[in-house]
Q: What sequence folds into this?
């Protein structure tokens, strides 16, 4: 398989038309008909000319303690506010609302551990578990407005803990369980969390990942945490510190941890969570999302894109610790009253058909994953999926990076048997929910996220904001506000304004390059900033570089992303050693391990090259673009500012 997306655009004329029966029965066409439209395109046009009416229409399908006074307040751009004056709580719509109907008996979650163990939770039971944790948090002094950090393996308690925070009005900050102590410590310090929820460990490829040990190291680096709540999962004897650490199973046994806890009334604009993501500098950005708009946006996009119905068994195979998990494992499926599936371990454990066997075993109808996972499983050959009955599947999905047409076609043919359209959803931590995406009513082009979602206007433009010609490379922008948009960056509103709204004013600049073809289909090319997508995970070159220079042997470092067959991109680093250190294979291995230890295994560079100088601008900025061009044997482009 060749990596083509840096060089050429795939065939933009190839169209896959959806099955008319699927279109006919889809949620989105039912909505179109209810509005008096016969086609998706007519509906789309109406949502653009009646944007606020459309979002208000969707919001009114949910429950509010008090209705909003104004759908959109744009008086203080770019600090947009949605459903102003409205009172709600996303958990009320994700859980409480269903308890008043037959759905209280419906399965909310089916979970399978890597060892094959299984747990299921009805909506009724979900409420019980969440309420008990919420009561424990309250008894530990957690209040409305606090930020609780969560660092957990992929187990149901991760979801319950997030919901428990939101239920009592605290914001959560989930740190992906694959991150190491430095990353966790930085995020704890920025959020000033007093309470951390974690687990003793998780399972990956049959081995225990000792999360609590990492937590202890992180807590020795940052002083804010007073209480650490620990779920028992691996039961391997995690190190606990008296007075600070508490076993959750002990606390959940106390009378205070009963199954009744009122859901706090929240202002639509109150903070629901922060989620750290990588940007251009080494300091991760704490992206802020709120209860009201995020609730409406995630609910609407999942309902129409993945066409969620009561009969579905929906599996989003992401990690809840990333935005995809927040929006499309935790919140949107529950708000839609869906049955979700969650799996803890590795896709190829113990064999490369683990995923396919679970699709068959649990009768999964919708599978939403990432190109890197598809490419990873495709590598093992067609025999593995062919052994399993995948006939329950009706929709597939992809997210995180552009999907190369080879992977798209394999997914479509070998997993979907040519019956299941692929929803290639483009969006970001910052956007909260899908922005450019097909629905089951949109013809597909392999490799394109197709067109903007209802109510969204996206375009590809030059730096001055003028539209690009068809197939011309440009900047991807969103032209109007949307409900689930980030509200700010925690502790750094200026970075929000400059980073997103002052690049191509008055538009929201996504930081991606893209092309739009003559049919209006958008083809995302990749990031324009110093962000590398490794296996769909977003990492900043600056984070990798600061991890490297924290090693005593390293004087200076530069990290770049280069195409990788499975991971999409892999990190390659260039290092200048301090006097007294000599390049060696052994040192390369040590430095790679050091980055893995500091940031997490996903950030470990594939290679480290020892150099004596790095290409820099006269002002001292490393020209990663030049390093990349050299590594790929491409022209170096404009090097007039190069200092060498
Ligand atoms: C990339 C993940 C092409 C893009 C939800 C974006 C995609 C970044 C797609 C956000 C897609 C995400 N096609 N590229 N379908 N989805 N991206 O914040 O570069 O982890 O800017 O959010 O992923 O990454 P994030």
A:
């Amino acid at each position: 398989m060749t990596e083509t997306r840096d060089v050429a655009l795939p065939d933009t004329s190839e169209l896959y038309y959806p099955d008319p029966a699927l279109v006919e029965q889809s949620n989105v066409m039912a909505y179109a008909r209810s509005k008096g439209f016969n086609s998706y395109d007519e509906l789309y046009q109406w949502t653009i000319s009646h944007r606020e009416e459309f979002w208000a229409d969707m919001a009114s399908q949910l429950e509010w303690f008090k209705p909003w006074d104004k759908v959109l307040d744009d008086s203080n751009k770019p600090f947009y506010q949605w459903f102003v004056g409205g009172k709600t709580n996303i958990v009320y719509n994700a859980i409480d609302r269903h308890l008043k109907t037959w759905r209280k008996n419906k399965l909310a979650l089916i979970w399978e551990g890597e060892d094959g163990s299984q747990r299921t939770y009805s909506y009724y039971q979900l409420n019980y578990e969440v309420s008990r944790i919420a009561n424990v948090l309250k008894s530990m002094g957690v209040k409305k407005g606090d930020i609780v950090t969560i660092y957990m393996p992929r187990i149901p308690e991760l979801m319950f803990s997030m919901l428990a925070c939101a239920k009592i009005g605290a914001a959560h900050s989930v740190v992906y369980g694959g991150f190491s102590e430095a990353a966790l410590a930085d995020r704890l310090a920025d959020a000033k969390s007093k309470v951390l929820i974690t687990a003793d460990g998780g399972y990956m490829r049959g081995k225990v990942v000792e999360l609590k040990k990492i937590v202890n190291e992180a807590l020795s680096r940052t002083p804010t945490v007073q209480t650490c709540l620990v779920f028992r999962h691996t039961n391997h004897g995690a190190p606990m510190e008296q007075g600070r650490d508490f076993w959750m199973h002990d606390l959940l046994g106390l009378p205070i941890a009963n199954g009744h806890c009122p859901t706090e009334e929240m202002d639509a604009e109150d903070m629901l969570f922060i989620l750290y993501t990588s940007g251009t500098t080494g300091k991760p950005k704490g992206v802020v999302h709120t209860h009201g708009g995020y609730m409406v946006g995630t609910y609407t996009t999942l309902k129409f894109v993945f066409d969620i119905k009561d009969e579905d068994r929906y599996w989003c195979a992401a990690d809840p610790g990333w935005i995809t998990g927040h929006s499309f494992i935790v919140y949107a499926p529950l708000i839609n009253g869906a049955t979700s599936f969650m799996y803890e371990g590795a896709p190829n454990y113990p064999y490369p058909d683990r995923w396919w066997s679970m699709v068959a075993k649990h009768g999964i109808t919708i599978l939403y994953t990432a190109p890197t996972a598809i490419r990873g499983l495709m590598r093992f050959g067609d025999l593995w999926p062919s052994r399993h009955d995948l006939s329950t599947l009706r929709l597939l999905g992809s997210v995180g990076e552009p999907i190369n047409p080879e992977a798209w076609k394999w997914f479509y043919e070998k997993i979907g048997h040519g019956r299941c359209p692929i929803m290639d959803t483009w969006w970001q931590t910052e956007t909260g929910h899908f922005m450019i995406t097909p629905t089951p009513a949109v013809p597909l082009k392999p490799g394109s996220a197709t067109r903007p979602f209802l109510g969204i206007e996206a375009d590809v433009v030059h730096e001055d904001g003028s539209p690009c010609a068809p197939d011309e490379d440009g900047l991807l922008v969103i032209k109007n506000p949307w409900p689930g948009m980030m509200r700010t960056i925690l502790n750094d509103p200026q970075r929000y304004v400059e980073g997103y709204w002052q690049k191509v004013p008055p538009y929201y600049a996504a930081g991606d390059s893209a092309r739009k073809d003559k049919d209006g289909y958008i083809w995302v090319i990749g990031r324009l900033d110093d962000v590398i997508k490794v296996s769909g995970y977003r990492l900043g070159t600056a984070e990798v570089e600061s991890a490297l220079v924290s090693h005593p042997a390293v004087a200076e470092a530069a990290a770049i992303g280069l195409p990788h067959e499975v991971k999409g991109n892999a990190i390659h680093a260039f290092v200048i050693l301090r006097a007294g250190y000599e390049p060696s294979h052994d040192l390369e291995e040590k430095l790679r391990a050091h980055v893995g230890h500091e940031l997490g295994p996903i950030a470990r560079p594939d290679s480290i090259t020892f150099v004596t100088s790095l290409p820099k601008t006269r002002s001292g900025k490393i020209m990663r673009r030049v390093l990349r061009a050299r590594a790929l044997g491409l022209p170096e482009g404009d090097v007039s500012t190069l200092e060498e």
User: Anything to note?
Assistant: Residues 277, 323-324, 399-402, 424-429, 449, 510-512, 524, 527, 533, 538 surround WTA (CB under 6 Å).
